[in-house]
C-alpha cells in the first residue's frame, strides 16, 4: 500500500507556515526533509502545523528534530503546532516535548513571533531570530555572568531517595 504526504505552504507576515497532511513515516519523511531544507535558508521563521497528520513515526520525529537543530544553527526559528492528542503524546513519550514545544494553535505561535523578533536589546537593536536575549537577574547581573546570588539558608541533609540506597 502506498502512503502519501501532501504539504501546503502558506506565507504570513514574518513567517512561513508548512502544513503536512497524511502519514509522516519512513516512506514520506524524505519529501518533508527536502522541503524543510530548501525553505530554512530563505525563511527565518518556520511554523510547522502537524494537525493534518494522521500518523507520525520515529523517522518523522527525527526529521522535525533535525530541522529544528538546523534552524537554530542558522539563526532561524522553527515552531511546531499540534492539537491532536495522539501526535502530542508522541512528543511527550519521546521527551521531544522539552526540546520542541508544541503550540496548540497557529495563532499562539503567530502572536508570539513579533515579540520574539522585535524586542530591542540594551543597545536598541532588535533580537536576531532564534537567539535568546540575556535575562537580567534581580541583583542586576546578567544570567550566567557576574557574581552569583548570595547563598540562602543551608539545607538540612536529606535521608536520600530510592536512587541513593543500595539495591
Descriptive report:
This protein is an alpha/beta fold. It has a domain at 5-118: Transcription Regulator spoIIAA, CATH 3.30.750. Helices cover 32% and strands 20% of the residues. It is built from 5 helices and 6 strands; from the N terminus they run ββαββαβααβα. It has helices at residues 29-39, 58-73, 85-94, 96-99, 106-118; strands spanning 5-12, 15-24, 45-49, 53-56, 77-81, 102-103. Strands 1, 2, 3, 4, 5 and 6 form a 6-stranded mixed sheet that branches. The model is unreliable at 115-165 (pLDDT under 50).
SSE arrangement:
Layout: E1 5-12, E2 15-24, H1 29-39, E3 45-49, E4 53-56, H2 58-73, E5 77-81, H3 85-94, H4 96-99, E6 102-103, H5 106-118
Parallel strand pairs: 2-3, 2-4, 3-5, 5-6
Antiparallel strand pairs: 1-2
Helix pairs in contact: 1-2
Which descriptors would you attach to this protein?
alpha/beta, Transcription Regulator spoIIAA, 32% helix
Could you tell me the number of beta strands? 6
- What is the annotated CATH architecture of the domain at 5-118? 2-Layer Sandwich
Total helix count?
5
Radius of gyration: 20 Å
| Secondary-structure element pattern, one letter each | EEHEEHEHHEH
Which outline best applies? globular
Biggest β-sheet description: 6 strands, mixed
Amino acid at each position: 500500500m502506498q502512503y502519501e504526504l501532501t504539504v501546503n505552504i502558506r506565507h504570513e507576515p514574518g513567517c512561513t507556515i508548512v502544513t503536512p497532511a497524511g502519514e509522516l513515516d519512513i516512506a514520506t519523511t524524505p519529501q518533508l526533509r527536502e522541503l524543510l531544507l530548501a525553505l530554512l535558508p530563505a525563511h527565518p521563521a518556520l511554523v510547522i502545523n502537524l494537525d493534518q497528520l494522521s500518523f507520525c513515526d520515529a523517522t518523522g520525529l527525527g526529521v522535525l528534530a533535525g530541522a529544528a537543530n538546523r534552524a537554530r544553527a542558522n539563526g532561524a526559528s522553527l515552531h511546531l503546532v499540534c492539537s491532536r492528542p495522539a501526535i502530542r503524546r508522541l512528543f511527550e513519550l519521546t521527551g521531544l516535548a522539552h526540546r520542541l514545544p508544541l503550540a496548540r494553535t497557529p495563532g499562539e505561535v503567530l502572536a508570539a513571533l513579533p515579540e520574539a523578533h522585535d524586542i530591542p536589546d540594551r543597545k536598541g537593536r532588535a533580537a536576531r531570530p532564534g537567539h535568546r536575549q540575556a535575562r537580567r537577574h534581580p541583583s542586576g547581573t546578567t544570567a550566567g555572568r557576574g557574581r552569583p546570588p548570595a547563598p540562602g539558608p543551608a539545607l538540612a541533609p536529606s535521608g536520600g531517595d530510592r536512587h541513593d540506597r543500595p539495591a
